[in-house]
From TrEMBL, chain A:
This is DUF2877 domain-containing protein. Pfam families: AllH. InterPro entries: AllH-like.
From TrEMBL, chain B:
Signal peptide: none annotated. Residues 513-533 have a biased composition (Low complexity). InterPro entries: AllG-like (IPR009499), NAD(P)-bd_dom_sf (IPR036291), OXTCase_su_AllG_h-dom (IPR024033), SUCC_ACL_C (IPR005811), Succinyl-CoA_synth-like (IPR016102). Pfam families: AllG (PF06545), Ligase_CoA (PF00549). GO terms for molecular function: succinate-CoA ligase (ADP-forming) activity; succinate-CoA ligase (GDP-forming) activity. This is Acyl-CoA synthetase FdrA. One of its GO terms (cellular component) is succinate-CoA ligase complex (ADP-forming).
Amino acid sequence: MGEGLDLTLLPGAVSPLVAAEVAGAPRRCRVLAAFPTCLYLDLGAHERVLAVLASDAVALPIGIRLAVPSTEVRWGVEPGAEVVVGGGRVRLPRADVVAARVLRPGRVRPAQRRTGAEGVLPDAGVLGDLAQDLTAAALAGRPVDPAVRGLVGVGRGLTPSGDDALCGVLLTLGAIDLPESRCGLSSVRTAVLGALPLTTSLSAALLVAAGTGYAVPEVARLVTLVVGAGSGDAAVASGAPASAERADLTDLTDLTYLVGRVLAIGHSSGHDLLSGVSGALRAVDAHLSASRTRPQPHEGAHRG
Amino acid sequence: MADHVELRTGAYLDSVTLMQVSRTVAAAPGVEAAQVAMATELNLEVIRGMGFEVPASAPNDLVVAIRGDEGGIAAGQAALESALTQTRSAASGSRDLGEAPAARTLGGAIRLSGADLALVSVPGEHAVTEALDAVRAGVSVMVFSDNVSVEDEVRLKDAAAAADVLVMGPDCGTAVVAGVALGFANVVQAGSVGLVAASGTGAQQVMCLLDAAGVGISHCLGVGGRDLSSAVAARSTRQALAALAADPETTSIVVVSKPPAPEVLADLEAYAATLGKPVHWATLGAGRPDLTSAVEAVLAATGREVPEPWPSWRPVVLDEQVSDPASTTESTAAQGSSLRGLFCGGTLADEAMLVAGEVVGGIRSNIPLRPELALGADLRDAGHVVIDFGDDAMTQGRAHPMIDPSLRLERIAAEAADPTCGVLLLDLVLGHGAHADPAPELADAIRSARATAAADGRHLDVVVSLTGTEGDPQGLQTSAARLVEAGAVVELSNAAATRTALRLLGHDVSAPSTGGSAHSTGGSAHSTGESAHWAGVGSQAAAAGEPLHALLSRDVSVAAAGVSLFSDALRAQAVPVTEAAWQPPMAGTAADLGRVLADSRREAANAEALRRMTAAGADLVDVRPAHEALGLERGTFLHAGPPIEFARASGPLKGALIGAMLFEGLADTAEEAEAKLERGDGITLEPCHHRDAVGPMAGVISPSMWVYELRDEVHDNTSWCSLNEGLGKVLRYGAYGPEVIDRLRWMNTVLGPILQQAVRARVEQQGSIDIKAIIAQMLQMGDEGHNRNRAGSLMLLRELLPTMITADASSTDVAEAVRFSGANEHFFLNLGMPACKLSTLAAHGIPGSSVVTTMARNGTDFGIRVSGTGDAWFTGPANTPEGLFLGSYGPDDANPDIGDSAITETAGIGGFAMAAAPAIVKFVGGDVPFALRATQTMYEITVGEHTAYQVPILEFRGTPTGIDVAAVARTGILPQINTGMAGRVAGTGQVGAGLVTPPAQCFTQALGDLAARSDEGLPTPAR
């Protein structure tokens, strides 16, 4: 850091998802994990985690984010240590992180499903199949508990692969402007909330955020674009080759760039999340296609 | 007591920083007066006005003027150094080996950081250049700078609309984007009201009133004070409205403006009705509601309660020193009858004039509501006066009064002594960007003003319109308390403050009826029948989903050029900021730069120039005598650099020409040769470049000399260069002794023919030798291709050896030819140069291109030619290189820069590839970090990167290629050239090697020519 800057006060932009705890009465919080770019702090409840993020960290929606990169900060704490959070700041041994403003975390925006852009997503694999089954059940109003429990906490990592895929499903359902997806999102969210003890605190916190559409900005933007930036009509196009339904070129360039950014998240988190998105979209498109080809004109005729 | 005045060149700092530095220096013990400022006309006037004598200077020089006793001057200088060091380290931070230097332009800062919002606060004449950078990078930009012409504003905003980015400004003081306060902005609650503001302080007033009523803000998009004028026709306002209409956080919109052009407002209202969200209008004007009424209407429409009354603070004890504003009781002391409004906020001044004008009639001002009310140059009048100290005319060459209040404080003191002044009406605006704690200083001024009046037997009331929120860094209550202590009445509402002032003058004032008079448009009702144009804009924005590249829904990071105060304010809000190390362009180039950068052909033309430069081939196809290859006739001598007559030639060029005369048998002695050359009979001197050839150092090519012939098959061009003579006493360094001439003869009779056979045989057997491929490889082997050619020379020899040793010549001659070639580390230079010439030749002659295609020196003049300016040379006196010297030679022995070898830098290698050749510093001077920095700095002035020539240590980044005249003028960065140094005296030879730059005037002249040829003013093609 340059001289002349106050080394003991680090301004931070705080996410509204954790702003209340940062602003609230000071209390001791355990350090769950410490990485060069970020710190994870236990806010008390299992699924309440505060991430202290350097500017080069993945911008998790549950964080207080600094404007300086990790090369210019040293947290000075180890996992298991306790730090004080509250009164508008996080007190670290070397410096106080001060909540200088509330930031706008990335959030998916509901849009009409337009096919064609999902071709940019990587191969989804087994996680994609699981995500597809879950989404299909959710859209059809069938029970989702078994499928959710098949994913929560499954796999390796601080955010297990199953959770990442589940985030992809939650975000996709939140990004589609359709009554069935709103109902489906609600049932998956309820099932997830019941299963949170099965996974890590950090992952649980991110699942809760994804349930309300919040995610890393690149993820939120990518999901929004993949859902709605294509040019095809999902109800008609199901099964048609993707190349016939391409999104326009600038969007695709943007998308390819975003996919690269998302794949760079974690060891496999970005990939797993996109597998979830990919599988969920397959289910959404099948659902839309079926509801179109199925009885519509027929029904109409009967009702006269 | 003594005066210390010094000038520092190349030390640009912004005016706000210098104001702080000046204060620090002036506060040092023993200093009586001090001023540190850039040497602009205005600043020089101020400094001379302080009694300092300032030597001749240019506007980009820094003037340091300190007055004090001996110790005081020393203390002042120490304070200066420490203050300057602090500003530099705060801006630059620590830099690691090989880390790119800070970008000089906003475009560079955006590229480095990937910022999604830009902030420009450089002096007005340069602001458009920086802002266009942002627009071209697809980034919305806030232009704080004022003094931007309306034509430039329109041009900038049209470009922005085409790129779907927003220009907030010029002269935009305030914006809040997704909770981030830019420029002067108050800390307000987040909420659902979106503002579009053609007025900075007006927007601040509206936000603070809303905040006081418990209503939060989603965004406040500034659009610049002139956006609602006829000329600008709401270009930015339309975009801002569309963006807010598409923003899910925003549920209602308020447009804040100084008096708008009626037809623009009418169009805009029609457009607003199509947005599907209610739009309220806080647009000042005669007969229109004041800002407070407009806010009350917004509150009523959103079902919020209107605070009754708006917050105000009054002195607790109303003694005879303070009138009771609630009554109109006359106090015993005499009181003037005129209102004197001294404002920092232009819109607040406008509003005060509108409100007061209804009661007391016309008010004279520097920003009059009607032209006949304009104040004279002295800004004095015995009647009612309102002055805006933030007006363009008052801020030229100084900081805005919200940062530097000194002008207004002086005027407050002057009013206190004026018996016609009855009430002082002042504004004070808090928030980010403003003075850190302005209330105490203003309170002191108020206190002493009242005391001055009292001592004079008069009574002076003071009313302050305080725009701020409790969240502001200065604190609303604290600030109000300080002012009240000084005897002022303080109001949050500017309109209310004005009415209070009128009451204190004894006027009968009634508050306006609220609610009904303010109006709004839009809402959920669908309106039809709008003009197709407006409707078109709206639907376009809607189709894109997230206008302005989703600016409003992301957490922004900022790139900034100009006043570092604003960057600091952003950092305090945890916003990542990348600052450009901005400097003014080369003196006198602002107007030409504007025209060249506006040339619609330039971007594509430069891209084409780069494409051709990097695509050009360079194959060695033959070696033959110059008379054969170039058609050189006896008596014609080619030389390096731009054209020159013998009389003006430097020592080394003269020496080389004398040598060539001897070699050609045109003279028997050096004296005879010189005499003939001086008379010029039968002798023709011509630049190598005029024949598409190049020559190192003196570059003399005579008809009998042998030359390499290189072909660019892609563009069907051919270039030639002489054979290298080795190092030491050689013709190209101006030596012409017998050993030099003997060597040339041997090269003609032995070396040339052997190389010819070798090359021809090689071409026959395997095809031509790809020189470009060797350059690409040598850069990865520690060469830079100008002053270090070791690897290149060995690779070339490897290519030639098989056919050299089988040439039809005696084995002794072959052995000597091989030994001579192998012993010469610069064997390759004479092939690298024509390869570079082919590259730049391909890029020459593209209309509109500002890429340099020739840099060459003849030892007297440095000349450049530019792609878009035809065959014209732009010349200036050649500089003398600085570097390391051979043996006992020193700086006095060195001749000014000479040779065509700067063609290597022109094509993206040599000094531009220094990072690839760190060992070069042992030869030319400097250190390894310098070598890395040199290459990285050159990216600032080049149009792109070479596709084949790469620098391993920079992650195989392409070398900086295609010098852009406009970028050179803009950044003041001159091309870095590595070069050999010739002895000053004819016949000496090489004395060293070093680093040199071209004279700046080559580039400023070329820029002038480009400006004269620019297509600016022609209708731009429809997008």
